[in-house]
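Contributing new records

If you add data, match the layout below exactly. Sequence lines come first and carry their own label; structure lines follow with theirs. Keep one chain per record. Anything else will be rejected by the validation script.
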Amino acid sequence: MYTLLLPMASDFNLWAISPSRMALVAAVSILAAAIVAYCEMRRRARNQAADYMDALASAVAFALAAGIFAVWAADSSAPRGMVWGFLLWSGGAAYLWHLGTRASRQPKPSGEVACTFLILASLSIFLFAVLGPRHAWTSAATVAGGVCAFAAWIVLRGIKHRFRRQKKEHLLIAQISARGDVLQEEYHRATPECPHPERWHMYDSLSAEVEVLDFLRALVIALKPELVVETGTFSGLSTLRMAEGLQANGFGRILTCELDKETYDAARRRFEASGLGSWIEARNESSLEMRVDGRIDLLFCDSEGPLREQEVRRFLPQMNPHGLILIHDASSSQKTVRQAALRLENEGLVSVLLVPTPRGLVMAQKREGRG
């Protein structure tokens, strides 16, 4: 493992350290690796080989940083190169941990951390050989380091390319299936109307914020709707919260639609396992083609952003004039939905209230027939 360090300190004999101190160095390295590997697998909770490689890469990086520090602390004769090696691998370990943190919050390519580690390790060998006292441009270590770094970069690009070709909904559904719904801080960027998004919480980047989910349940209980219509079922979290409100009321039903078959199937399985399926009618069809019978008391639009204005226009004639229309993702950073809501208001169709949540929420009411 320490061959990643020794090229910049070729005059230092690692094996000259006493056995007891070497045992301490090994113990520190193994302990760091074990702790990081455990934490990585806990937060990933997946069983793909690439995920194990990612966890191992982070563990080895932290073990290198801890081991180098232990060597430096155990022998005062260790060269200054040890300090640079410690700083390099501390920074590398922190960066790999950051990549792992992002992967735990939203889907990221499996194998990204492992490839990044290989790039860092290969570049360190290359740079130590080139910048060391011997300036060994043509040494085997230099060539091998450069070739390995380039190969790992090519593999990383291929991994990211395949990842980007997958639908975000499918990636999130797979992540939810593997690790369940994990509560975390909202990470959408701050906006003028919501400067502290970290005060909110989320399960994933597509479902509504947890506080909005709680609001939906409370709103159903307060409004007492007989018919709720939701567009964009996704994982079914918002559907279930509103169904809980219907159950508390003792009457009503919710009609929800999802166009993507794989996403719809995952939501339907969740509904069946929830015990709330009798309150929910789920459909695998487009919101713009779905037929709804009866007067709508509550409409929640959370489908594709460009479709939400069309959905409101389509269902507005069926809206109870005293009912409510909710449109998610209407923050000032997501202009499509926000501008659509304001356009509907400017046309005199609805009255709009912009709720300052991290991703934004429109509350609207049909103007016609309210008097």
